[in-house]
Amino acid sequence: MTTDRPTVLVVDDEEAIRSALATLLGRAGYIVRQAADGPSALAAIAQAVPDLALLDVVLDEGDSSQMSGLDVLRAIRARENFIPVIMLTSYPEWQVESLGHGAIAFVTKPWDANALLGQIRATLNAIAHIRRDALRTAGGSPQQAAVLHAGDVMIDLIHYRVTRAGQEIDLTPIEFALLAFLARSPEREWTREQLLDQVWGYEWAGYPRTVDRHIAAIRRKLRLSRDELIQTVHGMGYRLSP
Amino acid sequence: MTRRLIPFRAGWIVRLAGPLVLILSWLVIPLAEMDASGRLSLVVIRAGSPDALGWLFGAVGATIGALIGLGWYAAALRSLRPSRRWRPLIGMLAMLLILGLGWWFVPQTLLTSAAIRQPPVIIRAESDGALEWFIFSLVITAIVIVITGARRRRRHERWRGQRRLLAIMAEQLEDGVAIYNWRGRLRWSNQAADRYLKASPEIARLVNRAAETRRVAVQRVTISETLRLQVTAAAQPDGTIRLIARPAPSDDAREHFYERFMRRIVHDMRNPLAAIVAHAGNLRAGPGGDLAAQNTAAIIENEAGRLTRLVDSLLFDARLSYVPPALEMIDLGDLLEAVYYQYDERAAREGKRMEIEKPPEPALAEVDHDLLVRALGNLIDNSLKYTPPGGSIVLSLEVEPGQYRLNVTDTGEGIPPEYLPDRIFEALVRARPRDGGSGLGLSIVRKIAELHGGSVHAESIQGAGTTLTLCLPR
Which residue of A241, B57, B201, B281 has the fewest CB atoms within a 10 Å radius of its CB? Predict the structure, then answer.
């Protein structure tokens, strides 16, 4: 689904939120589809797979018989094809315990329009990059290409899951793509600009610190000590050596 | 409550001393003497002989051996593992065996070997009455055992009664209590601990972490929806690990209710606010070009944003008094870095320089990650607000004996002296009443610091800059 205009599915029970997102994303050049609840979201996905889904964590809080955002996420993840999901949450200190649903990102309401657009763009690029990468190497043995190993870290390129020593780690799609990219060519040094170019894939507004932030997040989530697995090459960038 | 009542090395000395004394008493006894004709003769004084020295050695050896055996027995009884009780008994039996062997065989061997090596030696050996003397010293040993043993037994009975009482109490506890040795192997546990350990592998991992780091590891562990545990694994100076798993049902019920309440309120308040902010933003950035309308939209956007922050602060402030901190061992340097990356882009956008200074070695502390991120974020927010473009903000971590200092230093306009050193951290106190702040940000920082047993301070020079410091115990 790499047409010129990617499709984004917006799932939120409040019309005011959906329409605001629809206007924002429509202006940014995305095809926007909307769903007000879980079942209609899944129906929309069954009809045509979107490139990305923006999903409210709490879909209709009052009625517990309804599907919550997490139920919808589970259903989406049960599908064969990976759809990147950005969860919209109302509460910034939301304690999100390990979901074990593959790569996922969170955005709090109210969102910063530019940051949200930037994240959607970067996520789509990161996912596209991984798909290209997986396709390119799948010619030989698809099974082997689908899983990357870096030390005790295992990266599943089909289900977008990362485990360290058997324990599942929740990365965002961008963090996932960055880690997978580094793991693809171990021992090779990459500059921040190269990484931005390769993983984020478009002209970033001159802010190489973005890479550092994501590396720091990966290290924190994988509980890596300093210079374990991912090394900082001083004055240059990063290198992964298992 | 510790396993080793006799220090390790001393224990072995005590245990070996008994048999050694016994054996030595037999090796030393053979005495050589010259007779009138100048020929060497070997006098072997056996325990059975009426020779005073032999008797002394035998009796002393037997007594010491018995006492040591008893000491060993008592010490082992006092240790916490009931299954090890046969050990001292075996020790006692071994001691008696050595005693017996000593009385009977050692002199015989000496006699023969001496006779073979030195044929001209006249051997004068007393062999009569050996059995009687052996029995006699056994009786002495028995008397000693009875006398000392009775006292020890009384003490031990009393102690065992207390211990039984303690064991019953321990089994009744809702708290899981367990003791591990220095290798992290389970030595003793109550039923609750067994149950919790079975239910969650995380607890065992926590113990391993405490064993590896030789520190205190604390973690919240969820057993079921209604049961969450505050688990503390503490490495003791004697090498053992003490595990306490304390359920927090009342807190959790409250927390659970509060979380639900929160979700409701937050969802109901933030969603409309988000819609207002988003629509106003669309209006402001939209095509059309009506400047006045776009200005209005920008004002709506800003004010709704402000309202959101205020709602946030109020709810967060309330949350602090409801939900206990979830402590975990983390590197404060990493935490500072995470906060830095949350704000560096905004600082760059606003034309302010942001730097981070931290020591190369990890600064481990037991803190609630999210709360500290919030506290530091509020400090940085404050600094960004009062620092003009072109200024700088430095985050630094200092390691001092007994405490960590997390500093946020800016080159802003400073805080008026009447708000120093800590009035600025009181709730609803604002140095500039009309700046749009809620007056809650810094008071939240103080609350978070106090929840961690720390404190906050402000140092400021008007017109030159401010340093806000969050101190945490080390």
Answer: B201
Contact B255, B323 (CB under 8 A): yes
Q: Copy the structure tokens of residue A113.
A: 């329009």
What pTM was computed for the model? Answer: 0.56
Q: How many beta-carbon pairs below 8 A join chains A and B?
A: 89
**Secondary structure class of A188 (helix, strand, coil):** coil
Query: CB-CB: which of A58, A92, A213 is closest to B267?
Result: A58
Domain containing residue A169 = 141-240
Asked if residues A45 and A83 have their Cβ atoms less than 8 Å apart, the reply is: yes
Q: Would residue A24 count as lying in a domain?
A: yes
Structurally, chain A folds into a number of domains equal to 2
**A88 and A181 inside one domain:** no
Q: What would the two tokens of residue A6 be?
A: 């990617």
What ipTM did this prediction achieve? 0.79
- Alpha carbon distance A178, A159 (integer Å): 16
Cβ contact A73:A101 at 8 Å:
yes
Task: Report the chain B residue with the minimal C-alpha distance to residue A107.
Answer: B274
Distance between CA B121 and CA B116 in Å, rounded? 9
Top residue of B225, B228, B259, B266 to mutate, by most chain A CBs within 10 Å, is B266
Which of A93, A207, A225 has the CB atom closest to B316's CB atom? A93
| Mean pLDDT in order along chain B per 10 residues (474 residues) | 41 54 48 46 44 52 60 54 55 63 48 42 43 62 66 79 86 87 82 87 84 80 78 82 79 64 72 90 81 87 85 78 77 87 85 88 85 91 89 92 90 82 76 67 88 88 87 88
Co-location of A107 and A153 in the same domain? no
Number of H helices, E strands in chain A: 8, 12
- On whether the CB atoms of residues B189 and B197 are closer than 8 A, the answer is yes
DSSP B30-56: -EEEE-TTS-EEEEE--TTS--HHHHH
Instruction: Report the distance separating Cα A173 and Cα A179, nearest Å.
Output: 10
Residue contact A110–B304, C-beta within 8 A: yes
B285 burial class (0-12, 13-18, 19+ CB within 10 angstroms)?
Answer: middle
| CA–CA distance, A9 with A47 (Å, rounded to integer) | 12
Last residue of a domain, one of A111, A130, A160: A111
The two structure tokens encoding residue B218: 């604390």
Residue A212: closest CA among chain B residues belongs to which residue?
A: B341
DSSP 8-state code for residue B423: G
Q: Is residue A21 part of a domain?
A: yes
Tell whether A104 and A11 lie within a shared domain: yes
Condensed to tens digits (0 to 9), the pLDDT of residues A183-236 reads 888 888 888 888 888 888 765 555 667 788 888 888 888 888 777 888 888 778
Is A11 in the same domain as A102?
Answer: yes
**Exposed (0-12), middle (13-18) or buried (19+): which is A194, by Cβ within 10 Å?**
middle
Domain boundary among A69, A92, A111: A111
Name the residue in chain B with its Cα closest to that of A88: B271
